[in-house]
Specification:
Elements: H1 5-16, E1 36-41, E2 44-53, E3 59-66, H2 75-89, E4 94-98, E5 112-121, H3 126-129, E6 146-151, E7 155-160, E8 163-172, E9 177-184, H4 193-208, E10 213-218, H5 222-230, E11 234-243
Parallel strand pairs: 3-4, 9-10
Antiparallel strand pairs: 1-2, 2-3, 4-11, 5-10, 5-11, 6-7, 7-8, 8-9
Length: 244
Amino acid sequence: SDLTLQQLDEISQLCSLCPDYEPYTDTDSVHGEHCFFLCYEGPLLIGYLSFLEVQQNDEAEITALVHPQYRQQGIFTAMLTAAKTELMKENIHHLYASVPAAYRSCSFCKDASHTEYLMALESCPACCCAFEENETFLSGPDAGKISYLKNGEDQYHLLLSHKVIGVCNLEPESSFTNLWGVEIKKPYRGNGYGFLLMLYSINDYFKEYSQPLILQVTSLNPAAFHLYQKCGFSVLEKVEYFNL
C-alpha cells in the first residue's frame, strides 16, 4: 500500500511509454490498503494497476498500464485477478475502467458502464443574469419562504423557512473554478430548488469573477446533467467507462 521513490520513478517511466493513460495513484483509495499492484520481469516494471473507491460502497474504478512490448500476454488479467481478490475483502463487487478509444476493441470493453462529462460555463447566461432573490423562478406557497446564504467565498446555501435544504461548493483553480457538491436534501428534490440554487450561485459568482466554471457529472445522474444543461453548461469532453 506504500510506494517507494524507486517504484514511483518506475511507474513514471512506464507512463511515459503509455501517453494515452492518466493513472491514479492516491494512497487514500480503499482506506489506504492494497492500492497498488506492480508486475515485473526481472528488474523491469511491465505492469501497474491500482483502484479507486468511489461514492457507492460496492464500486471501484480500475486504472492499469502494461508495457507496450508485453501486451497480449495476460499481464493485465493477472493483475486484475489479484485486485479482485483484495477488493472482495472490502465488499467491492462492481469494477469499471475508462478506456481510450484506441483500445475499446479489447474483450472486456463489451459491457458499457457509464459516461462522465466535463462541463463548462464561460459566462453568466441570460437566465442567471435575470435572477433576483424572489419568487420569479418559483411559484406556490413556498415562493416567499426561499432565502440564500453565502458561506465565505466558496459555498452557497439555499434555505426554506430559514432551514438549509441545499448546498453548492466552489473551488478556485488558476484558470477556472470547480463547481461541485451540488445537493438538495431528499425530501425537497424535484421541486425546482436545485435550479434556484444554481441560478443564485452562478449569478453571484460572475458578479466578481470572469474565469469559467467547470464541473463533472455522470450519466448515472441524469437529473443533475439536465439541470446543468438548463443552467447553460456545455459538454467539453466525455469519458466512457466499461464494466470489468
